Amino acid sequence: MAMDWRTVxxxxxxxxxxxxxxxxEQLAFEAHxxxxxxxxxxxxxxxxxxxxxGRLAAALGVTPADLVTPARQN
Length: 74
Known about the structure:
Layout: H1 5-19, H2 24-31, H3 35-42, H4 50-60, H5 64-68
C-alpha cells in the first residue's frame, strides 16, 4: 500500500506543534504562512512546497527530514 506523504507530513506538523504548546495561529505567524494553510497541512489536504516545508521546519526547530519521516508504529 502506498504511503500518503501529505498525511505523514501533516501528522508530524501537528504532533511537533502540540509538543511545543503552539497554536496553529502561532505556527502560521512564525512560518510566515496563512493560518488556514496550516490547518489544511495538518489535515493532509495540502501539498506544501519545499519553501513552506523549510519555513515550518524552522518555526518548529526541526529539520525538513523530521517532518517527512513516518512515525514509528509501537
